[in-house]
Design brief:
Number of helices: 22
Radius of gyration: 48 Å
Helix content: 40-55%
Largest sheet: 7 strands, mixed
Distance between the termini: 106 Å
Shape: flat
């Protein structure tokens, strides 16, 4: 260590000791003054706390006393009322005298009155004009009506219908001679009363007093009541926490949102009543003198401290100036060396001839050379593309001192390897010499990474193109599958429709019961085949993800009625008791969902229960198990007393083509798709399904669905239609109400056309035939029809386009159009809706279905 350095160190130590001593004296003086001030502030706060507690206690005692007087008075009124009721009744004149007497005894009451058992105002003081008003919606009235034996009921604050001012109501139920609810006697305290109580307290210039309910709703505030939100619960977090932790009273310090003034607050519950009294003394009021004294002494202390600091600063500045130059040079040199040593970039300095003057270790590592070779290197040794004159000339001519020039180049290492670098170059002057400083960063790996990323991005684009191509292929396959399913549905249902149609026509004409019974077996086999076709098409659409649930309003009552109508006869034929239990409130409630699919699930589970039960009962139950503003969760359960299912066989129940026992398909029929379809539909509805069973002990199949709530009237909701409606009743209704109604039947298939037209004619209607869509449009242009039955697949012009053209005709703008189709796909349903059709009849059609659909179409007005 040199002599100069030792001298500088001793001077620095002496300066530090002097400055520390002076500061210690000043800090000690300021600390003693601060302690004294804070002790004095605590004494001020304690006096304010005691005063706040005292005022709170006085206001609480006043309110409790007044509330107690009102409470006893109306309680005594209720007792006398019930006593008079037992002795023969209470006259209007006696009620009026009793109310006037109470009003005279308690002038602080804003209003006083009696409501009858319907909530109608019988007596009111001082508002006789209010008699006859309906107060049945008030909370205190409904609470008394629900429990006429309860005691005092306190309600409010709310705006009075008699005075239009905020009030708090004290009330008691009234009972007649038999103990039944007879009405309510009430007394109301208005904001004027609370104003009179709270303004008596001396709260200081910025103090505040508040009355709140037990749940912190604002009753009245003084001062500035006009700004208060009566009934609002906008309170500070401190009050909310304090009331929750110490409901019996306490204190806290907080600023109110109304005026932003900080106050020391105390609160107490009003004894025996659901109210709080809150009193706050403003900090500014009781700490004003203390703050003024503190400010004066603070100014003095600050001036003293500032003077001392200025003197110390002057001395310190003089001493610092003596060593500033030497320390600055040493620090700058040390900092420069640190930057050079630690920088990851290759920093190097060149003179005007391109010779290497200075470089850090990172630069030598970058060019692959030893630091000992630095004095013999020129720029061309590591950057063959740049000569010395180019570097220094560009720096001198293209960059002003302090400016930076950036460029990319390639450095050559001692072993011949090349590295890609980004260079930042600038010039500076030191004395009369001019130098160039450069910072070189190795970006070889970065460039390789960028090239790799560009290659991967290209491959990713190729992959995306391939995926897009595959997606288009999959979409085309799905469309082809939809078309195939539609064609298969049509080709299967069309001959089946002919079989069932002709069978029904023959059944209706045969007098021989034995032959009719045999034909009924043909119909049963046909219905079974139709069910299999429906199940196969449904499972195919579900597995392809092509099922779209409807969003329709409906009620569970409609589903219950449909289920009972469809399966009641089947249960009775086997001697089984079928019960369906849905809570009335849930049954009548209007919901959003897909009622057709929900009915399909219930029919499958309940039909299985009837099929596998030989004696006993079938119980169907529904219950609400959860509800949010956006959804309603309903649980259904179907319980039977049938053969039961072993635990190891239950896992196969909900798989396609799976049954508990393969022999069951031979004994009971079915191909094992019903439960698989039901499970997929339930999952689409956001629910789950399960079974609880044991062999010989019956089974319980349960499932949940998530539906949407609706606030619309149940009268507009969807109503289920029986799949096998009563042909006799509907046919008779058609004969009675719509004899001679003209029906345009557009059908190219001869057997089905003969069946439909034959049934319509037997029902007293007038069917008119059209063999294709173009003929149907021409006949619709020429004549009026009450209903149009339109096939989907027609020659020349298909049914959808024909319906669109007919719908544009003024005479048929509102004529109902029903589509007859063998396709049950969602695409078909959507096309029919867009084509202006009002409904779908799925082939094969039964007589009852046809009569019911025609009756509905002729009955319901269409917009």
């Amino acid at each position: 260590m040199s002599r100069l350095e030792r001298l500088l160190r001793r001077c620095a130590q002496g300066r530090c000791l002097f400055v520390a001593s002076a500061l210690l004296v000043v800090v000690a003086v300021v600390a003693l003054a601060s302690v004294s001030f804070f002790l004095e502030r605590d004494r001020y706060r304690e006096r304010a706390r005691v005063a706040t507690q005292n005022v709170t206690a006085l206001l609480e005692a006043k309110l409790a006393g007044d509330f107690r007087r009102v409470d006893l008075a109306i309680a005594n009124f209720a007792v006398e009322y019930m006593r008079d009721a037992r002795q023969g009744g209470v006259s209007s004149a006696r009620l009026e005298r009793a109310v006037d007497l109470l009003g005279a005894l308690f002038p602080e009451l804003e209003s006083l009155g009696v409501l009858d058992h319907q909530g109608v105002l019988q007596q009111a003081r001082p508002f006789p004009s209010g008699r006859g008003g309906d107060f049945s919606d008030r909370t205190y009235f409904t609470a008394a009506r629900e429990n006429p034996h309860r005691g005092l009921i306190v309600d409010g604050p709310f705006r009075s219908r008699l005075s239009q001012r905020p009030v708090v109501v004290f009330s008691y139920p009234l009972r007649d001679a038999d103990g039944r609810f007879a009405g309510v006697v009430f007394a109301a305290l208005s904001s004027e009363y609370f104003h009179g109580v709270l303004t008596r307290a001396d709260l200081g210039r910025h103090g505040a007093a508040t009355v709140r309910t037990a749940d912190l709703a604002l009753v009245y505030r003084n001062p500035r009541p006009e700004l208060a939100d009566i009934g609002g619960r906008n309170v500070s977090d401190q009050l909310r926490r304090a009331a929750a932790e110490a409901p019996g009273g306490g204190e806290f310090v907080a600023s109110t949102a109304l005026d932003g003034i900080e106050r020391s607050n105390a609160y107490r519950p009003v004894e025996g009543y659901p109210f709080y009294v809150l009193v706050g003394m403003a900090t500014e009021d009781f700490l004003g003198d203390w703050r003024r004294n503190t400010a004066l002494i603070g100014v003095f202390s600050g001036a003293l401290l500032l003077t001392v600091l200025l003197v110390l600063a002057a001395l310190y500045r003089l001493s610092r100036q003596q060593a500033a130059v030497g320390q600055a040079l040493a620090a700058e040199a040390e900092r420069f060396q640190t930057v050079l040593r630690t920088s990851a970039d290759g920093i190097h300095v060149l003179d005007r001839q391109g010779r290497l003057v200075l470089a850090n270790p990172a630069f030598f590592a970058l060019i692959g050379r030893d630091e000992n070779d630095g004095g013999n290197l020129r720029v061309g040794d590591w950057d063959p593309g740049t000569e010395a004159g180019m570097v220094t000339g560009a720096a001198a001519g293209g960059c002003a001192p302090g400016q930076v020039r950036q460029f990319a180049t390639r450095y050559r290492q001692a072993n011949g390897a090349m590295r890609d670098v980004d260079v930042n170059l600038s010039r500076f002057r030191l004395g009369s010499e001019e130098f160039v400083v450069a910072s070189a960063r190795d970006v070889t790996e970065k460039k390789r990474t960028v090239e790799m990323l560009e290659f991967m991005l290209g491959e990713h684009r190729k992959l995306n193109d391939e995926l897009a191509f595959r997606a288009r292929q999959a979409e085309a396959a799905n469309r082809a599958k939809d078309a195939f399913l539609a064609n298969v549905s049509h080709e299967l249902r069309t001959p089946l429709n002919g079989i069932m149609g002709m069978t029904q026509l023959v059944q209706r004409k045969l007098p021989d019961p034995a032959l009719r019974a045999r034909l009924e077996k043909v119909m049963q086999a046909s219905r079974h085949l139709r069910a299999i076709i429906n199940d196969l098409l449904d499972i195919s659409r579900i597995e392809a993800g092509r099922i779209v649930l409807e969003e329709t309003e409906f009620t569970l009552q409609a589903l219950v009625d449909s289920l009972r109508g469809l399966l009641g006869d089947a249960a009775r034929e086997k001697g089984l008791a079928l019960s369906i239990d849905v809570p009335p409130a849930l049954a009548r409630r209007t919901l959003y969902g897909d009622p057709v699919r929900l009915e399909q699930i219930l029919l499958n589970l309940t039909g299985n229960a009837i099929k596998f039960t030989s004696a006993g009962s079938i119980d169907v139950q529904a219950e609400l198990i959860g509800e949010t503003p956006a959804s309603v969760i309903v649980r259904f359960a179907v319980r039977d007393t049938g053969i039961g299912i072993a635990a190891e066989e239950q896992q196969r129940l909900f798989t396609a083509f799976g049954q508990a026992d393969a022999s069951l398909s031979r004994r009971y029929g079915g191909i094992g798709l019903g439960l698989a379809i039901s499970k997929r539909l339930i999952e689409l509805m956001g629910g789950e399904v399960g079974v609880e069973s044991a062999p010989g002990r019956g089974a319980v199949f349960w499932f949940t669905v998530r539906l949407a709530p609706s606030d619309r009237s149940p009268s507009v909701a969807w109503k289920a239609q029986p799949l096998e409606a009563s042909a006799v009743d509907d046919e008779a209704e058609l004969r009675r109400r719509f004899p001679g109604a003209r029906i345009l039947v557009v059908e190219d298939e001869p057997i089905h056309r003969e069946f439909v037209m034959g049934l319509l004619a037997e029902a007293g209607l007038v069917p008119v035939f059209a063999g294709d869509g173009q003929v149907a449009v021409e006949q619709a242009e020429a004549a009026d029809f009450d209903l149009i039955l339109m096939d989907m697949l027609l020659p020349r012009l298909d049914g959808i386009e024909a319906a669109r053209r007919i719908r544009k005709l003024p005479r048929h703008a509102r004529t109902p159009i029903l589509v007859l189709t063998a396709s049950a796909s969602e695409t078909t349903r959507a096309e029919c809706t867009r084509g202006g059709m009002n409904g779908i009849l799925l082939k094969p059609v039964l007589a009852g279905q046809l009569f019911r659909a025609v009756l509905q179409a002729l009955t319901v007005p269409h917009a």
